[in-house]
Amino acid sequence: MAQFTITTTPEEQEKVYNAVKKLNGVAAPVTLIAKTADMNPNRVRYVLVDLIDAKRIEKIPTKAFNPHYIRYKYKTID
Asked: Mean pLDDT, the chain, as a whole number?
């Protein structure tokens, strides 16, 4: 099976980090984070994963509608 590696730039990470910081503690969908960061939502998904891996933000589940649909909020780690 093919493996893809998607890299994100420090500039993208900083834009998304600032957007998450602005929405800190709010259960916001990725589309709202993307709109706040003025970026494409698909790209923001990859940046969020990189920021979580770098321990700059925390992903907190807020509501599980079913096993496949869980709402999250993101919180900056200062």
From this structure: 92
